[in-house]
Amino acid sequence: MSISRCYENPPSFSPGSGAGTVQEVGGGGRLKAYVTGPLDSKLAILFVSDVFGYEAPNLRKLADKVAAAGFLVVAPDFFYGDPVDLSNPNFDRQVWIAAHGTDKGCEDAKAVIAALRSKGVSAIGAAGFCWGGKVVVNLASSDHIQAAVVLHPGRITDDEINEVKTPIAILGAEIDDASPPEQLEHFGEILSAKSGIDCFVKIFPGVAHGWTVRYSVEDEWGVKSAEEAHGDMLNWFSKYMKEE
């Protein structure tokens, strides 16, 4: 996860952005999350952010868009108040990476999923962006979630893809040294060879790693491509997320 593109185009943090609210989730009382959508929905989507965390305005805007389709969307603060902050002159990338491994993120995600199920949620999907993509691929190797979408994921291995048991969509950028298009297409070949696993791989031309949540509103092509990816993500969840 030391790939440079993971840290490009950082957002301006906005703790008060979005139509939802910040709540404590996961049972332990320490993990906060941005929560939006109908609280009585039986269908929930877990957002696992990139390294810039759950206060990124575009991430929350997307969460609100998904919530408007009837899903309860939960975007936890997996970094416990310590997202990547490139404006901090003392920020040390390697120290941050060591402190915020995806293994811990996966365990936190499982706790959130358990909390959602305890409240009556019957089906859960997960969307992972960059850092979060690896977390979601790992969640998809079990029965914790019913559908997965990874968007411009960080480094994922063939072995991890081989373990996937959940319908998964992989949305990638043409310009991406973290997850090059040819690698994502190779993942699609691995998944297609697995019996009973539906998959979808799509590469978006002319955009770079992170574009779905780090686009600039002045970039007409970037916005159009991001919105197309958002639609693909929502269609995937709508296809596989059913009330039990």
Automatic annotation (TrEMBL):
<feature type="domain" description="Dienelactone hydrolase">
    <location>
        <begin position="32"/>
        <end position="240"/>
    </location>
</feature>
<dbReference type="InterPro" id="IPR029058">
    <property type="entry name" value="AB_hydrolase_fold"/>
</dbReference>
<protein>
    <recommendedName>
        <fullName>Dienelactone hydrolase domain-containing protein</fullName>
    </recommendedName>
</protein>
<dbReference type="InterPro" id="IPR002925">
    <property type="entry name" value="Dienelactn_hydro"/>
</dbReference>
<dbReference type="Pfam" id="PF01738">
    <property type="entry name" value="DLH"/>
</dbReference>
<feature type="region of interest" description="Disordered">
    <location>
        <begin position="1"/>
        <end position="20"/>
    </location>
</feature>
